[in-house]
Amino acid sequence: MKTIHTRARVGSDGIMELRLPSGVIEADLDVIIVIRTIAERGSDQRPKMTPEVWKQWIEQTAGSWKGEPLERAPQGEFEIRESFE
Q: Which has the closest alpha carbon to 48: 2, 5, 1?
């Protein structure tokens, strides 16, 4: 299953046209469309992240760092504290 989030504009004729990349070729698809106005969504401009979307995002980004190797800086000396005993 693939989730695509996009915005569209409805013309003065009340028709909304969507062109979305599906990632598949010559296949039958089950498509579900939820229509809500921006006002219905509230002030939060990002869609709510479901557990499935969060898991997919983690799997896509985990291990994707391409920069310099990450190294933990020296942590210094730990302070000696009094015992609870």
A: 5
Decide: helix, strand or coil at residue 16: coil
Nearest Cα to 5, choosing from 50, 43, 62, 61? Answer: 50
In whole angstroms, give the CA distance from residue 25 to residue 42: 36
User: What does the pLDDT read at residue 33?
Assistant: 82
Closest CA to 35 of 62, 7, 73, 1: 7
Distance (Å) of CA 30 to CA 1, 59, 73: 10, 24, 50
pLDDT digits (tens, 9 = 90+) for 70-85: 899 999 998 888 988 7
CA–CA separation, 32 and 3 (whole Å): 10
Distance CA 15, CA 35 (A): 13
Structure tokens at 14: 């009340």
Residue 48, SS3 per DSSP: coil
